[in-house]
Amino acid sequence: MRCSTQGVHDVTALDGWFGGVARALSRRTSRRGLLGRLGLLLVGGAALPLLPVARAAAGTGRAPAPGEPDPERPEGDPDACEYWRYCGIDGFLASCCGGTHRSCPPGTEMSAVTWVGTCRNPADGKDYVISYNDCCGKDACGRCFCNRNEGDKPVYFPSRSNDINWCMGQAGIVYNSTTAIVIGVATDPDR
Ligand code: ABN
Questions:
Q1: pLDDT in tens, 37-83
Q2: 90 CB within 6 A, ligand 1
Q3: How many of the other CB atoms lie within 10 Å of CB of 77?
Q4: Which residues of the chain have pLDDT under 50?
Q5: What is the rounded distance in angstroms from the CA atom of residue 117 to the CA atom of residue 70?
Q6: Ligand 1 atom nearest to 91, measured from its CA
Q7: Full 3-state SS string of the chain
Q8: Which of 90, 134, 152, 166 is catalytic?
Q9: Whose CA is nearest to atom 5 of ligand 1?
């Protein structure tokens, strides 16, 4: 039996090593430590809604639907086709072409004749009459084409159609882009 003493030494050393590891582990995973970590997780979870990403949809508890104002910019973005005033538009947004949603780009002239639509402003829930005046006298802008057509009627009903080049009465007949100008609050004819 030559190897028995060696074997006993090995087992004792291994026992000692495992014992040390187990003690270190139990020191690090004490019940108090575990509770502390659980507490940290709970506090961290509760703080998540305070982060900027979660705050974007604050108040409603959800992301804004298309056409609804962004809580960060309730007045809307006049460069975006989804902007509330463009509900009945068919054309290139003047605001993307050097002008604004209310003014024509430099070098163009606003059409005198136009068509009007009615759009709801989601910021106050009111309906507004919008005049879609075309900007005339320069080549088609080609940027930010927007075709929403709410309330649009076929061209044989010209006063209710947005599919008409309203520059036709102007000296510069060439169509460039379109504005969206509020001309008043819409009143309900049934009231
Ligand atoms: N009113 C915008 C427009 C211009 C030219 C042709 C169609 C529509």
A1: 666 666 655 654 444 444 444 444 556 555 455 666 667 899 999 99
A2: yes
A3: 13
A4: 1-5, 48-60, 67
A5: 23
A6: 2
A7: CCCHHHHHHHHHHHHHHHHHHHHHHHHHCCHHHHHHHHHHHHHHHHHHHHCHHHHCCCCCCCCCCCCCCECCECCCCCCCCCCHHHCCCEEEEHHHCCCCCCCCCCCCEECCCCEEEEEEECCCCEEEEEEECEEECCCCCCCCEEECCCCCCCCCCHHHCCCCCHHHHCCCCCEEEECCEEEEECCCCCC
A8: 134
A9: 165
CB of residue 170 inside a 6 A radius of ligand 1: no
Q: Would residue 134 show up in a list of annotated catalytic residues for this protein?
A: yes
pLDDT for 8: 53
Give the count of beta carbons closer than 10 Å to the beta carbon of residue 130. Answer: 29
CA atoms 145, 110, 113, 183: torsion sign: positive
Distance 81 CA to ligand 1 centre (A): 16
Report which ligand 1 atom has the smallest distance to the Cα of 132: 1
127 catalytic per annotation = no
In whole angstroms, what is the distance from residue 181 CA to residue 111 CA? 12
User: What pLDDT does residue 16 have?
Assistant: 78
pLDDT at residue 190, as a whole number: 63
